[in-house]
Amino acid sequence: MKILIVDDDELIVKLMEKNLALDGYQTLTAYDGEEAVEMVHQHVPDLVILDIMMPKKDGFQVCREIRETGIPIIMLTAKTGIYDKLAGLELGADDYIIKPFDSRELSARVKALFRRLKPRPVAGETGPGLQVFEDSRRVIYQGEEIRLTPKEYDLLLLLRKNPERVFGREQLLDRVWGYDFFGDTRTVDIHVQRLRKKVSQLGEEIETVFGIGYRYREKKP
Predict the structure, then answer these.
(1) Nearest-angstrom CA–CA distance, 21 and 54
(2) Options 3.65.10.10, 1.20.120.330, 1.20.1630.10, 1.10.10.10; CATH of 124-218
(3) Which residues contact 89 (CB under 8 A, 6 or more apart)?
(4) What is the pTM of this model?
């Protein structure tokens, strides 16, 4: 697995490089936002660990530019305000770590994220013009690929495999993000809103069940 570390603090970068290497990961580094975007397109890493406060382009700008690649992103920030956490998640980040952090937390977060993204056994699911392939985590509609972030894909697959079943927000948080994710249910709402925009044109929808959560329903012809 190849991880791109993006931070303008050289000491932090070196520490993360060392810790991730001990876990067997290959690392790449970038020290500003512009370099980060170039590295993503040139090397296509398996994960980006992205600081928010950086020169040239901040982490939010970088996240906005690379999110359509589908590469998972862990935001790294010294800010603890809920606004910064939600802003990163709204832009497509999969998780966040708050500075200062313990090397064991970094290792655990990275491992947990890769576990959630591990490809499932080969199985294709076909709907009206929509195909979901679990081996490659691809969604195809009328021959064109629909670009989803890892969390959007996981939500779609879970809901679509359980049509008409109502999932509470806490259930979705646990099933998709895992018990070790330290976010709140607003995270689920943000991702469902983004997913709705991408799949609404397919004749299917994710319906809000007021006061409970969400369910997947197909529109009737």
Answers:
(1) 24
(2) 1.10.10.10
(3) 96, 183, 187, 190, 191
(4) 0.57
